[in-house]
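Hey, I'm writing a tutorial for new members on how sequence and structure tokens pair up, and I'd like a real worked example in the thread rather than a made-up one. If someone can provide the structure for the chain below, I'll link this post from the tutorial.
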Amino acid sequence: MKYGQNFIENQKLIEVIGEIFDSVYADQLQMQITVNSSSYAVKFYESLGFSKTSEEQETDGLKYTPMHYCPLRMDGLITG
């Protein structure tokens, strides 16, 4: 009887771990980092995995390039 009880407890543990994994994965899907890069730093941010979201812009005399980073896109798990 003890073996069966351990099996059930292990199954419950596996389910809990699966739920935690699903929760963390869902959070990662929503995670995104954005920056407004100077023209001098665009290549640096691209080397870190950032992508341009539009071309260079200017606001109040300051030029910048909007960029974003999504870890799961870097892993090829999601696209777009």
